[in-house]
Automatic annotation (TrEMBL), chain A:
Stretches for region Disordered: 98-117, 504-524
Compositional bias ranges of the Low complexity kind: 101-116
All residue ranges annotated as the VPS9 domain in the record: 265-408
Keywords for the protein's UniProt record, in alphabetical order: Metal-binding, Zinc, Zinc-finger
Protein name: Rab5 GDP/GTP exchange factor isoform X1
UniProt xrefs under InterPro entries: DUF5601 (IPR041545), VPS9 (IPR003123), Vps9-like (IPR045046), VPS9_dom_sf (IPR037191), Znf_A20 (IPR002653)
Domain called A20-type: residue spans: 45-79
Coiled coil (residue ranges): none
TrEMBL record, chain B:
Localization in the cell: Cleavage furrow; Early endosome membrane; Endoplasmic reticulum membrane
GO MF annotation list: GTP binding; GTPase activity
Any one annotated GO CC term: endoplasmic reticulum membrane
PANTHER family: PTHR47978
Coiled-coil segments: none
GO biological process: protein transport; Rab protein signal transduction
Keyword annotations from UniProtKB, A to Z: GTP-binding, Lipoprotein, Membrane, Nucleotide-binding, Prenylation, Protein transport, Transport
Protein name: Ras-related protein Rab-21
Membership in a protein family: Belongs to the small GTPase superfamily. Rab family.
Pfam families: Ras
Membrane topology: Lipid-anchor
Amino acid sequence: MLGTVNKMKHQMMLFFFQRGNLPSLLLASRKKMSLKSERRGIHVDQSELLCKKGCGYYGNPAWQGFCSKCWREEYHKARQKQIQEDWELAERLQREEEEAFASSQSSQGAQSLTFSKFEEKKTNEKTRKVTTVKKFFTASSRVGSKKAEIQEAKAPSPSINRQTSIETDRVSKEFIEFLKTFHKTGQEIYKQTKLFLEAMHYKRDLSIEEQSECTQDFYQNVAEKMQTRGKVPPERVEKIMDQIEKYIMTRLYKYVFCPETTDDEKKDLAIQKRIRALHWVTPQMLCVPVNEEIPEVSDMVVKAITDIIEMDSKRVPRDKLACITKCSKHIFNAIKITKNEPASADDFLPTLIYIVLKGNPPRLQSNIQYITRFCNPSRLMTGEDGYYFTNLCCAVAFIEKLDAQSLNLSQEDFDRYMSGQTSPRKQESENWSPDACLGVKQMYKNLDLLSQLNERQERIMNEAKKLEKDLIDWTDGIAKEVQDIVEKYPLEIKPPNQSLAAIDSENVENDKLPPPLQPQVYAG
Amino acid sequence: MAAGGGAAAGRAYSFKVVLLGEGCVGKTSLVLRYCENKFNDKHITTLQASFLTKKLNIGGKRVNLAIWDTAGQERFHALGPIYYRDSNGAILVYDITDEDSFQKVKNWVKELRKMLGNEICLCIVGNKIDLEKERHVSIQEAESYADSVGAKHYHTSAKQNKGIEELFLDLCKRMIETAQVDERAKGNGSSQPGAARRGVQIIDDEPPAQSGGGGCCSSG
């Protein structure tokens, strides 16, 4: 896999070489070109202009006297050979590393099982680093004298160009484009930056503090020169400084972020573990003035967490700072919505602590150290970014030292929570909600509802059964009662009553009725 | 190591000022009144009152003031040094109706003097003078204490907008003085703005000897 990565890198490099627009070339070559054309004006030798391979086309001194086609072929061949060599070297190194890793692993024993993956990654990274450095040596020795002058013309240091990735290249281009607008000053700045990068290359073995020192000195010197010599107004100096920082730190990042010579990594793991152990801390304990029941607020909280986690993915200290600032703005929004007044530090710091606890941002200590060491100091000391960064440092310091008192808990409670025996959320089941994500929240709610329904159903079933029983009992009771009554008052059949017979007879008081009308005949 | 304080002619000074004091003494109201001229107002436009800036022009000298609010809760007390590192001035606020808050100020003063020496300009501020009737900290006591530690004492009311302008103006003047003394000490010209770098403590401590006596802070 490593081989493929290297190969890709080479191909990419090749691409830039072929196009001949290696960014470093632009400014440096301009002067040379004009010199050469002058000389050419004095004596023109036809053979000197033709391709050295004799293909009939014109050659170009920039391509060692080859024409573009022949040069490409030549170059490609050399490249292929080198790729092959590098590949072999990388493979050998990886084998060695793996052996070393295996032995170190066995000596470490089983207890570091959880770290093994991490170690592995680190070892891989180390291998890669070693390869690049070695590659640089093989390259320069192989390049030979013919190419050497070209290399010189093209780039001050082969090592710098050799490690270009898409991003570094893009940044370089932007940097050059940016500097072009400053003409002479820009050129001067570019030269200084290049010199600095070269110097830094040879300082890689120094301690990180010394490297940081050099970088800070560089920032200071460049800024000063711009002001005194270049007479650049302060606002522009700031802008240029930002660009310089972006340019050099994109290149240096790989070597100075979480370097192996420091215990940054150990600290990263320590704080990560610590935050994990503190998973039970609730907003109430920290007195966080944010009400996550409000959807807008919980939105802001999520955004803030995303921002703080994103910090790790940035390379330039200023971009990392920007992430912290963005996170802080979201926190302020959340507080503003909840409390409806501007957030003071009394509100902000606890909320930031809470966000850090919830987010557990990766490589927190490394990032903080990196920013402290390599950020342009003027930004870090007085600006708004600096303020939020300071607050983040405070939050981390607080988390590291946090104890029962700082959460207003009794020592026993704190110890129990820390040991994981109990969780404050179990006791007050209402409070878990802000912590869970929406889906989980919904699930818990549904489960709750289901159990409630279950209970109700059982109750209804019980009641129904009771009702059934009652009904049966009731009919039984009624039947019994009827029986009783029937027994008590047995049905006797008596002879028909006299009066009853009279009613039924046909001529009831028949004689009392007036006589029926008789037809009468009137005289007519 | 006055952070970014120094400024050659024609350039702006930039000062960092920390606000210290217990919660509820009115730190936030104080800065909001100063920067927005508003008190407990529903129309306050800023999202936050923890980091505010103000541009001033004092006698032709441009000053960029960055005001850093700090969390006042007791549990965050230990974080103080991270906040006030590299600051040029500190405003220590107490509530005149609350004896305890004055004690806190005393603690802060001790700590600041210990950590930053005389480089930092201290202001002790008795806030809420609109509640004079409920005063629990005597004026004499507070003022004589301020004198004894080389700080200046101010009476303010954020509610009635009293004494706040004066407080900040005075503080700025004192910080400029300190910065100038500093510049001269460094040997004119060699001093660069932003020269002091955080993390790089130049602890040769010659400035306290240079400023002499109670430093700038008692000069007022």
